[in-house]
Structure formats: C-alpha cells, structure tokens
Amino acid sequence: MTAESSAAPGGFEMASRAAMFRPVDALSSLATPAAPKAPGRGLHRFANPGRFLRLAAALQPWLTAGGLILTAAGLVWGLVFAPADWQQGDAVRIMYVHVPAAWLASAGYLALAVCSVLSLVWRHPLADLAAAEIGPVGAAFTGICLATGSLWGKPMWGAWWVWDARLTSVLVLFFLYLGHIALIRAFDDPTRGYRAGAILALVGVVNLPIIKFSVDWWNTLHQPATISLTGAPSMYLGMLWPLALTALGYTLVFAALVTARTRAAVMERRIRALLMAAAAREDGAVPVAA
Amino acid sequence: MSMLALLGRELRLSLRHGTDTVAALLFFLVAAALFPLAIGPAPETLGRLAPGIVWVCALLAALLPLERLFGADYEDGSLDQLLLCGLPAGAVAAVKAAAHWLVTGLPLLLAAAPIGLMLRLKAELLPVLLAGLLPGTLVLSLLGTAGAAIVLGARRGGVLLPLLVLPLAMPVLIFGAGAVEAAATGLSPRPHLLLLAAVLALAAPLCPLAAGAAIRAAAE
After folding, report:
1. Among B29, B82, B89, B53, which Cα is nearest to B216's?
2. Alpha-carbon distance A178 to A146, whole Å?
3. Which among B152, B136, B151 is positioned nearest to B62, based on CA atoms?
4. What are phi and psi of A103, to 5 degrees?
5. What's the pLDDT at A42?
6. What sections of chain A are H helices per DSSP?
7. A190-204 and A95-121 helices cross at what angle (nearest 10)?
8. By the number of CB atoms within 10 A of the CB, which of B23, B77, B83, B152 ranks highest?
C-alpha cells in the first residue's frame, strides 16, 4: 500500500528521487527543465520544481514589495486622509483593514479549492504543496477579518460578536481552514494527507456561496454588499480608492506569503531527499524511497 | 456483492458488537441528563433550551461510532475487498452511511422524544423536533461518513474527525433547532424544515461521492 502510494505522484517525486540517486549534480539537473513532451500540457510544465523555483524567485520580490507598498499606501490613505463617515465617524476606517481581509479569506479558500481540484484530478504535485501552504495564510487572513470585525462591531452594534448569518458562516470558514491545516499534516505519508485535504477542501466549498449571499438571504445585522462588479459603486470615491489599494496590496501580500512558503516547501523536500541519499551512501545500502 | 448484501453485512456486524452500538445512545441519554443538573430544573428555562440540548447531544452522539465506521475494515483489509467487490466506491460509502443511520441515527431519533419530555419540552412541539431530527440525523450520517473516510489512516483521526464534521454540521443544527423555535413562537416551522430537506438533498449525492474518493485514496 505504501509503496504504491509513494510511487503515484509523478513528476515532482520522480524529480526528487532522481536527485537522491545523483546527489552531486542534483541541483543542476533539477534546474534544467526537460522540454515538455507534448504541447497543451501547460499546467504540468510548472510541475518541474526547478522551473517553479526560478519563476517564483523572479516573482517573489515584486509580489513582496508591491504588496507591502500598496498595503502601506492604502492604509495610510484610508486611516489618515480619507474622509470620516457621516454616520460612523472615524470607526469607518476599520473598513480598510477588515474588508480586504474578508475578501482574501474567501478568495484564499477558492484558491485552495482550485489547488485541490488540480491535485485530485491531475495529481499536480505543486498544487499539493500550494494547498498545504495556502491553509495557514488563509486562516490568518480569516482571523484578521474576524478580529477587526469584532473591533468594528463593538462601537457600531454595541457587541463584540453577534450570531448572524455572515459572522457565523465566516466563523465556519475559519474552522474549515483550521481543520484543513490539521488534516493535511496528520498523515505519515504526505501524499495521503494531500488527497484527504483536497477532498475536505472541496466539501467545504459549499460554504463560500453561503458567505457571499448570507447578507441577502437572511436579515443580518451585518450590512449587505456595498460594492459590486456590475453596478455603480454606492460609495464615495474618496473611500473607494484607498479600499481598492489595500485590497490589491492584501492580494499581493497573500500571494507573496504563499509563494514564499511553497518555495520553502519545495526546498525542504529537496534537502530531505539529499540527506536521505547521503545517509544511504554512508550505510552502503540501496536507497529506499520512503 | 449487491448493496443490500453489503448493508446486511454492516447491520450484522453492528449487531454482534452490540455495546459499541448502544454506547452512542447511552452517551445521548447521559449527556442530555447533565443539562437539567447544570442549569437547574426550572421548567420554563429548561423547556426553552430543550430543542438545542437535544440537537447538540444528538450531534455529538452521532459522531461517536464514526471512527469505527471504516476503521475496522481498513485495518483488517476488508476495505480493499469491498472496493474490489464490483460496487463503485461511492456506493460502498452510501451503504456505510445508511448503516450508520440505521444503527445510530434511528435510535437517537426514537430516544429524542422521551428525552425532550424529560427536558420539559412542550408536548405539541415534539412532532416538530422529530420532523427536524429525521432529515437532520440523515445529513449527520452522510457528513459523518465523508469525515470518517477522509481521516482514514490519519494520526489522531478520532480527534480530527469532530473538528472536520462539526463545522459542516452547523447548518443542520441551525435549521433543526430553528424549526422548533419558530413553532414555539407561533410561526410556521415549514421554511426551516424545507431548508433541512434541501441540505439533505445536497448531501445525499455529494457526501457518498466525497467519501468514495477518500476511501479509494486510503486504499491506494
């Protein structure tokens, strides 16, 4: 059972196993990607860890710097220069921290679900790693959303927490993230963890439309959506611009964190493979894949 | 092996391990009996909390036997045999869910009426509670089967299982307890019950599919 499942995952494991048998030139051999055999296998071009690492290393500074600069600019604009609300006063400024976090919490789960489909259907090895790394980042953004929402709720609604549909469904999203994080790391064979986590993530997708439409379906204390993709924004432009900036900044920060974590995961695997090869060489034994 | 034969096998197995089966029911009774002792026996408070208590205790009790649902078959290799028997993995999972409901959900449903009365629930609200528990326990069995299949082979699977299943079971709890609440305040419980039925209609095809994919991954 174990031998079969560890042999299953294709490109990535193969590459790391190649690294185990030829540890000396492992890094150089991984860094030169094999030409894709057939056209139209665009997705699997990035299954090559060397290609992914080079692409991610090139993207990383742009994502990190762009995310930090945009977030800082948007937050300074929103928290200092944007006008106060006629009804909520300065408390409305929590919006610039809260709303992008809430968007990213949902969008992050969507990304997790997409990775899960890639992992289940095409057994894409990088999607496995990305799914494992999106979980903690998404949970952190959901935590920020819940915490800032609670801070906003106290002055506006007079309570830290109300059990309305929007808050409850986001809390469920938080639990789903935590369950996914715990599950994907609970297996001795990582491949099993990726499969189980992917199935769980796809089951949890039902929660996303519930979060989105909870404010329309139920009569919630949480306000309905102000911004839609189709209609004109029912929001003063002086507030919309800093919000758009922070949203873009948060998105880039999210992407930067996931990219950095995935790169670290790829390198961790590579180090483990090299160490095992070295240990096998010392023992003079035939290296056993585990 | 047909699905009926598989169901017969599951039921025979749970009959022969009678104590495992009765344990969930006993847990339900004991847990529900704790509440009057903890919050005091005043009929009006207790009667108001009764639907919530029954629902939460039923939810937790339904989780208890889940770990063994696939666990025993996984350990002794029967699961591989079941997957080779010609039925699709989803059908095997659906039979497991049906067996779980017959062995756990149905007894819980039967025990809910006397427990509700002991918790001073008004007798006219009992039919609403049971009408909610019927689709509710079915959904719990389906969700629980999917959860049990997903944690198959994990370290600390028994601890993980409630963490995965309980968040997904929250809508069931909300609508089930909401139906009794609506009836108690003179509103129609119909919308809540219809929503519960809708959840069941969604879970009935999707949960066995997910569970089937998970047991196939576990047996790989």
Report:
1. B89
2. 14
3. B136
4. -60, -45
5. 65
6. 2-7, 11-21, 26-31, 42-45, 49-76, 95-121, 125-157, 165-184, 190-204, 207-217, 237-283
7. 120
8. B152
Structure tokens at A239: 């507030």
Residue of B75, B150, B175, B194 to mutate, interface with A, max A Cβ within 10 Å: B150
For chain B, list residues with pLDDT below 50.
none
B153 at A interface, C-beta within 8 A = yes
CA dist B35 and B50 (Å) reads 9
**d(CA B18, nearest CA chain A) in Å:** 31
pLDDT at position A216: 78
Q: Which pair of structure tokens corresponds to residue B193?
A: 């019950």
Q: What is the pLDDT of residue A282?
A: 84
The span from the CA of B47 to the CA of B121, in Å, is 4
Contacts of B36 (CB under 8 A, 6+ apart): B46, B118, B119
Q: Do B160 and A1 touch (CB under 8 A)?
A: no
Give CA angle at A17 (B150, A28), nearest 5°. 130
Nearest to A183 among B160, B213, B219 (CB): B160
Q: Does residue B6 contact residue B95 with C-beta atoms inside 8 Å?
A: yes
- Interface residue A202 vs chain B (CB under 8 A): yes
pTM score over 0.90? no
Q: Give me the residues paired with residue B58 across strands.
A: none
**Contact call for A120 and B219, based on CB within 8 A:** no
**Tokens (6 digits) for B187:** 């509103």
Contact A186 B155 (CB under 8 A): yes
Task: Note whether A258 and A110 are within 8 A (CB).
Answer: no
Q: How distant, in Å, are the alpha carbons of A12, A106, A175, B96 from that of A143?
A: 33, 12, 10, 36
For A4, the closest chain B residue by CA position comes to B220
Out of B146, B155, B160, name the one closest to residue A203 (CB).
B146
Domain locations in chain B as residue ranges: 3-219
How many angstroms separate the Cα of A242 from the Cα of each of A82, A96, B69? 8, 7, 53
pLDDT along chain A (290 residues), means of 10: 39 42 40 46 72 91 94 91 81 90 94 93 89 95 94 88 88 94 90 92 90 79 74 74 92 95 92 90 64
Could you tell me the two tokens for A142? 């959901």
- Residue A179 to residue B164, Cβ atoms within 8 A: yes
**Residue keyed to tokens 């306000």:** A223
